[in-house]
Amino acid sequence: FHITFAMSTQQDIYAAGSESRPPMLNKENYVPWSSRLLRYAKSRPNGKLIHNSILNGPYVRRMIAELGDGERDVNTILLGLPEDIYAAVDSCETAQEIWLRVQQMMKGFDIGIQEKKAKLFNEWERFTSNEGESIESYYHRFLKLMNDLKRNKHFPEKIASNLKFLNNLQPEWSRYVTIVCDTREIFKF
Predict the structure, then answer these.
(1) In this structure, are 12 and 100 located in the same domain?
(2) What is the mean pLDDT of each run of 10 residues along the chain (189 residues)?
(3) Contact, 149 vs 155, CB < 8 A?
(4) Are residues 100 and 83 part of one domain?
(5) Among positive and negative, which fits the CA dihedral 32, 36, 37, 39?
(6) Which residues are within 8 A (CB) of 34 and not within 5 positions of it... i.e. 6 or more apart?
(7) What domain range includes position 119?
(8) Secondary structure (3-state) at 34
(9) Dist CA 165 CA 134 (whole Å)
C-alpha cells in the first residue's frame, strides 16, 4: 500500500508541475490543466508577457523585435504536453498557435461539457462508501467529487450534499449519525 501511495504522490507531483516544470496535460481534465498552465506561465520571469503571448500570439514591438522570446513561450507549453499531443503540435510556430490547436484537440477529445456534467451527476448519484473504507478516505473522495462538481458549475444544495455524505456512510459509522440526529431532536423540545 505504501509503495502505491508513493507512486501516486510522484505521479500527482509530475502532473501538477513544479517551479521548474509546467503541469503535464491530463486529457480528461483539460480545463484545470489549462488554468494551471496559464498560472505557471504567469509565475515565470516575464510571466505576463508569456501569458499574453499564449493567448494572443507573440508580442511584436514596433521598432525592435526581441529574438528568442517566442521560443521561450513555445517551450513553456511544449514541456507540459504528453508525447501524443506534442507530436500533433510541434510544427506550430507560436505559443498561441499551439494553445489554440491543443484547445481544439481537447474539445474533440473531451466527452463534451454536457456529457461530463452527466457523468459527474451520475457519479454523485452512485456515490457511496466502500466496505472497510476509513471515514477519512471516504471524506477525501467526497471532497474530490464536490470539487469536480463545483469546477463544472454544478452545485448541489448544502443540505443535499450533507445528507448524501451522512446517508452513505458504512454501517459502523451510521450509528453516530443516528446519535447526532437524536441529539438534535432532543434540543428541539
Answers:
(1) yes
(2) 43 54 78 83 84 79 55 81 84 87 75 74 86 87 87 77 79 68 56
(3) yes
(4) yes
(5) positive
(6) 103
(7) 113-188
(8) helix
(9) 13
